[in-house]
Design goal:
One of its GO terms (cellular component) is cytosol. Keywords: Cytoplasm, GTP-binding, Hydrolase, Nucleotide-binding. It comes from Chlorella sorokiniana (Freshwater green alga). GO terms for molecular function: GTP binding; GTPase activity. The chain starts with 16 loop residues before the first helix and ends with a strand. The chain is an alpha/beta fold. The chain is extended and about 125 Å long. It has 22 helices and ten strands. Among the domains are: 260 residues, P-loop containing nucleotide triphosphate hydrolases (Rossmann fold); 116 residues, Conserved Hypothetical Protein Ylqf, Chain: A, domain 2.
């Protein structure tokens, strides 16, 4: 391999030939197709990347490709589309008009349907029909935004992803919508249930409320009342607790079983793995029996009953399958949209699970921040985190944020409500400074702090639960108090609740004041950790008791020093207090090798009487040196 001189090092091709060859293989050899910014290009490999948001140019090109049209730009024909004038806005009147328009056009907000087909339909005909139907659906939603001035959430715009949903719906006996139990109505699609019935009269739907262990039992009971009143079939479930059932730690398994214990309301019970498998198989068998009774064929083909799992991204479909199997069968990631193709997995000899990629369905929304907070838009791709963090702070409140993160947020100004939630700037800067996350310019790294807060909100570390529509004030208070149950987990909770560190002596105070930078912090952290460990072991109480028994004068009580999560993270970063386990050397490095001998090099040798008393020494390079006596 020679130096890089504009040629590929191995093949000798010019730099960039790999891109040209790839474009040729995909059919983009020239013309308008070489510059189309769309995910629907036909080629040997379908693009399964989820497309939720796109700029105006990409949107126009995608619609033109679906319609099979081309265009040419016109130069020197300027059209003014905005004069820059801003009219006064009546927000209350606009909100009322928007609500009325949403109710009037709710029937137009539906998922795309697959055109009817049979065995005589050729693949090319079906592809053309699907593209035409999808184009008409996109135009219908565009007219809602343009004509009715309605705001829609970002939704899936890739036809290939919708095709995965169509296949899952067609081959399933039971369609399960996996929703987040903290806000189930945001993730539930009534139109999806109606579409399932349109495909087959006996196809049943089930709501699987995942992450139900984050809700108190009383709140789960109120949601059970709501779903019973509307006639929806539902069940509470926790994929995390299901995975804990297969843990090798006995304490973890015991805690998982305890969460599944039947309380006062049997409807609010969080099912285990075996219970959920039995329920899914029973629902699918009932759907098959109903089809046989009505004299129609089953929705699925084959001997096994098929249960399809659908829903929004990042609600736990793949995690549910992994929990049911007890091992990792599908890829799971905190980024929404990890699953790209639907997968069929045989659970038992008579039951098959079909995992569908997550789809963001179109809904009415006030802002994109609500969708980001819901976790359906990838958080790692965000550049502006202030709006979604503002929404999260308004939901969870000041008290929970300070308790979970151990922060001291800025107090509201004079004349402001003392209980108002913190602003995004206040929360992001306080969180970033507490963690030591500073950008190169010396300003707090708000992007990193915002992504961390949003991920914690999606994962349930900071909790917010919604109450059912029309709930009583008691239920609303119960939902609001659910998040206040959250406390710092692990050592943060124990350290925050304990009184640690006695007042330092004068000598210790001088040592602490003399410490500078990281060394001073390390000394303080070591003292705090030592005192905290003494209190955790009960030594402080024992010393106090022994002192009192010996007649010693009682000492002043210890000064209360609360350790929040930020202090503990700082101690971990500085490796103080023995909190961070030090890496051990591998065992093989302790195996000492035998000492290599230098032989007789450089040593004097007595050769006996054959010489005249002289000595011969073997040199370092193997030569012989005669040394006169």
């Amino acid at each position: 391999m020679g130096k890089h001189n504009g040629k590929a090092r191995k093949t000798g091709l010019t730099v960039g030939s790999a891109l040209v060859n790839k474009a040729r293989r995909e059919g983009r050899t020239g013309g308008a197709a070489a510059f189309l910014h769309t995910t629907d290009l036909e080629g040997p490999k379908k693009n399964m990347q989820s497309v939720i948001e796109s700029n105006d140019l990409d949107e126009m090109m995608a619609m033109a490709d679906l319609a099979g049209k081309d265009f040419t730009a016109e130069k020197e024909h300027v059209i003014v589309i905005s004069t820059g004038a801003v009219a006064s806005v009546d927000h209350e009147r606009l909100a009322a008009e928007r609500k009325e328009a949403e109710d009037r056009n709710r029937h137009r907000l539906r998922i795309p349907r697959r055109p009817a087909w049979d065995e005589s339909t050729t693949p090319d005909q079906l592809d053309e029909q699907e593209r035409t139907s999808f184009y008409e659906w996109r135009r219908e939603l565009a007219s809602l935004e343009q004509d009715e001035r309605l705001v829609l959430t970002p939704f899936e715009k890739n036809l290939e992803v919708w095709r995965q949903l169509w296949r899952v719906l067609e081959r399933s006996d039971v369609v399960v919508q996996v929703v987040d139990a903290r806000d189930p109505l945001t993730y539930r699609s009534e139109d999806l249930e109606a579409y399932a019935l349109d495909l087959h009269p006996t196809k049943r739907s089930l709501l699987l409320l995942n992450k139900a262990d984050l809700l108190p039992e009383a709140l789960r009971s109120t949601w059970a009342d709501h779903f019973d009143s509307i006639g929806a079939d539902y069940v509470f479930w926790s994929a995390k607790a299901g995975m804990d059932e297969h843990s090798t730690d006995e304490d973890v398994r015991t805690a998982a079983v305890e969460r599944q214990r039947v309380g006062k309301d049997p409807r609010a019970r969080v099912l285990g793995v075996d219970d959920l498998l039995d329920l899914l198989e029973a629902r699918a068998a009932a759907a098959a029996a109903d089809a046989e009774a009505k004299g129609v064929g089953r929705a699925s083909r084959g001997d096994r009953l098929v249960v399809g799992l659908t829903g929004y991204p990042n609600v736990g479909k793949s995690s549910t399958i992994n929990a049911l199997f007890g091992s990792k069968k599908t890829a799971v990631a905190p980024t929404p949209g990890k699953t790209k193709h639907f997968q069929t997995l045989n659970v038992t000899g008579s039951l098959c699970l079909c995992d569908c990629p997550g789809l963001v369905l179109p809904q009415y929304a006030q802002s994109k921040a609500e969708m980001v907070a819901a976790g359906v838009i990838p958080i790692d791709r965000l550049t502006d985190v202030r709006a979604p963090v503002e929404a999260v702070a308004a939901r969870v409140g000041r008290q929970q944020l300070e308790a979970v993160y151990g922060l001291h947020l800025p107090a509201p100004g004079r004349g402001q409500d003392s209980k108002r939630p913190p602003t995004a700037v206040e929360l992001l800067r306080s969180f970033a400074y507490a963690r030591g996350w500073v950008a190169a310019s010396g300003l707090p790294d708000e992007t990193r702090a915002g992504r961390r807060i949003l991920k914690d909100y999606v994962d349930g570390k900071i909790l917010y639960c919604k109450a059912p529509p029309g709930a009583s004030p008691q239920v609303l208070a119960l939902a609001a108090a659910a998040g206040q149950r959250q406390r710092p987990s692990g050592a943060a909770a124990a350290a925050g609740a304990a009184a640690v560190a006695a007042p330092p002596s004068q000598q210790q105070q001088q040592q602490l004041e003399a410490g500078e930078g990281q060394g001073g912090l390390a000394q303080q952290g070591a003292a705090v950790a030592e005192a905290g460990q003494a209190i955790a072991d009960g030594s402080g109480a024992a010393d106090g008791a022994s002192g009192a028994g010996n007649g010693a004068a009682p000492q002043a009580g210890p000064e209360v020093l609360d350790l929040d999560e930020g202090d503990l993270l700082l101690m971990d970063d500085l490796d103080i207090g023995g909190r961070k386990a030090k890496a051990q050397r591998p065992a093989y490095k302790f195996h000492k090798k035998a000492v290599r001998s230098k032989g007789d090099r450089g040593q004097k040798k007595e050769l006996g009487a054959m010489y005249d008393g002289a000595q011969i020494v073997q040199g370092k390079r193997g030569g012989v040196v005669r040394i006169p006596s």
